[in-house]
């Protein structure tokens, strides 16, 4: 046993000695020499940028000029740069004179003559005027929106005059009908728009009416009528509830050089009307036109607002005119609107618009009889100068034709 242990010890010692010899031999082995430093690269100048049309090659020697050899531009005047054309603001328009305007627009007004004037002349020209014929005459007048009471009055007078006249020539019938229609329309009424109050300026005119009757447009056209007659005008855009109403009115004013007073959208219309009159006084203009909102005549609260506008304006001065704008094509429905407006504000005059289309001329008679105030202006088209002062003779002549 001891022999085995001795042998194992000897073997371990031998292995340890051999391992030490191996490690020692590795430590004594020299390291490889470091690599030599890299040689400096040869730097070659890059070729010059090629000229247009040249190949990429070394630039050729080219002759160069000194600054003395270069021809400099002469000291002449510099070239003028054209300025953009100045866009001039559109000039102020000169409205068409109002004198005799209705006569010039007679052709448009005569479109209503078929239902009234010519229809009556045809019936009255019959050889025998029996009861059936008179009933047709009465029906013609009612269809033409003359109204019940005026129709009955006209038929009675026609009966009497035809009976006295006996034989009837076309000229006699036309003269007879003209006389009776003029009596109904009225020739003694003052139809001038009041814009010149005594002892003060400006005259104040308020325009009222339902939306869709052409109220704002009529206000703008009325400004043109006044300017054509030599007046200066300020416009008050008190219709603050309808979108773009103030813009529309301002455009009308700019065409004739009239100043427009406006407020914020959905603002207080009475405040705008008050400021318009105030500025009109400060500017010393002749007339202030106030365009009001197109109140629904069935809404009591809104109609009260219109009454407020009137009261606020009268803190400056009394209103000289309150013009009610009616659409002539609505016929008897327009009379319902007229009654309600007359209860809220004191209507002093009527403006009938759209009288050149399908309107029946009898509405002029009916609305005057209903309100007891005269028709002062009529609208006969879409043009800017198609608003005319109402002239009874020219109106009746257009209805019955030549």
Walkthrough of the structure:
This protein is α/β, with parallel strands linked by helices. 44% of the residues lie in helices and 10% in strands. The protein contains 14 helices and 8 strands. It has an 8-stranded mixed sheet with strand order 3-2-4-1-5-6-7-8, with helices on both faces. Helix 12 links the parallel strand 5 and strand 6. Helix 8 (215-228) runs parallel beside helix 9 (245-256) and helix 12 (332-344) runs parallel beside helix 13. The longest helix has 26 residues, at 2-27. The relative contact order is 0.14. The model is unreliable at 52-56 (pLDDT under 50).
Global mean pLDDT = 80
**Largest sheet, spatial ordering of strands:** 3-2-4-1-5-6-7-8
Shape: elongated
> What's the helical proportion of residues?
40-55%
- Tally of separate helices: 14
Compute the separation of the termini in Å: 166 Å
- Helix- and strand-based class? alpha/beta
In terms of per-residue confidence, which ranges show pLDDT below 50 for 5 or more consecutive residues? 52-56
The secondary-structure element order is HHHHHHHEHEHEHEHEHEHEEH
- Largest sheet composition: 8 strands, mixed
Q: What is the percentage of strand-forming residues? A: 5-15%
Secondary-structure map with pairings?
Blueprint: H1 2-27, H2 101-104, H3 106-109, H4 117-124, H5 131-143, H6 148-165, H7 170-185, E1 203-208, H8 215-228, E2 233-237, H9 245-256, E3 259-261, H10 269-283, E4 287-291, H11 300-313, E5 321-327, H12 332-344, E6 349-353, H13 363-371, E7 375-379, E8 387-389, H14 392-400
Parallel strand pairs: 1-4, 1-5, 2-3, 2-4, 5-6, 6-7
Antiparallel strand pairs: 7-8
Helix pairs in contact: 4-5, 4-7, 4-14, 5-6, 6-7, 7-14, 8-9, 10-11, 12-13
């Amino acid at each position: 046993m001891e022999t085995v242990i001795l042998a194992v010890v000897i073997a371990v010692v031998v292995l340890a000695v051999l391992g030490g010899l191996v490690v020692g031999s590795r430590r004594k082995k020299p390291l490889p020499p470091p690599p030599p430093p890299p040689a400096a690269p040869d730097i070659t100048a890059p070729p010059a940028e090629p000229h247009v049309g040249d190949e990429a090659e070394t630039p050729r020697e080219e002759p160069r000029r000194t600054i003395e050899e270069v021809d400099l531009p002469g000291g002449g005047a510099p070239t003028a740069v054209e300025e953009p054309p100045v866009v001039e603001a559109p000039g102020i328009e000169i409205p068409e004179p109002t004198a005799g305007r209705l006569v010039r627009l007679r052709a448009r007004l005569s479109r209503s003559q078929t239902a009234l004037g010519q229809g009556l002349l045809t019936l009255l020209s019959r050889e025998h005027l029996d009861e059936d014929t008179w009933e047709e005459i009465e029906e013609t007048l009612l269809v033409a929106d003359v109204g019940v009471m005026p129709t009955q009055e006209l038929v009675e007078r026609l009966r009497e005059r035809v009976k006295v006249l006996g034989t009837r020539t076309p000229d006699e019938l036309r003269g007879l009908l003209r006389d009776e229609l003029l009596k109904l329309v009225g020739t003694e009424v003052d139809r001038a728009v009041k814009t010149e109050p005594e002892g003060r300026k400006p005259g104040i005119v308020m325009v009222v009416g339902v939306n869709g009757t052409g109220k704002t447009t009529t206000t703008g056209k009325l400004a043109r009528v006044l300017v054509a007659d030599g007046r200066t005008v300020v416009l008050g855009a008190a219709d603050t509830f309808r979108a773009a109403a103030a813009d529309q009115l301002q455009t009308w004013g700019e065409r004739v050089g009239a100043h427009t007073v406006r407020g914020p959208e959905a603002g207080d219309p009475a405040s705008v009307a008050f400021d318009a009159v105030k500025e009109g006084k400060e500017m010393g203009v002749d007339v202030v036109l106030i365009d009001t909102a197109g109140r629904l005549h069935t809404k009591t609260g809104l109609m009260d607002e219109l009454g407020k506008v009137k009261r606020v304006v009268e803190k400056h001065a009394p209103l000289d005119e309150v013009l009610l704008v009616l659409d002539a094509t609505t016929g008897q429905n327009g009379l319902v609107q007229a009654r309600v407006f007359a209860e809220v504000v004191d209507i002093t005059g009527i403006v009938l618009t759209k009288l050149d289309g399908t309107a029946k001329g009898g509405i002029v008679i009916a609305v005057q009889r209903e309100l007891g105030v005269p028709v002062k202006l009529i609208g006969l088209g879409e043009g800017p100068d198609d608003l005319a002062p109402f002239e009874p003779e020219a109106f009746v002549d257009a209805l019955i034709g030549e």
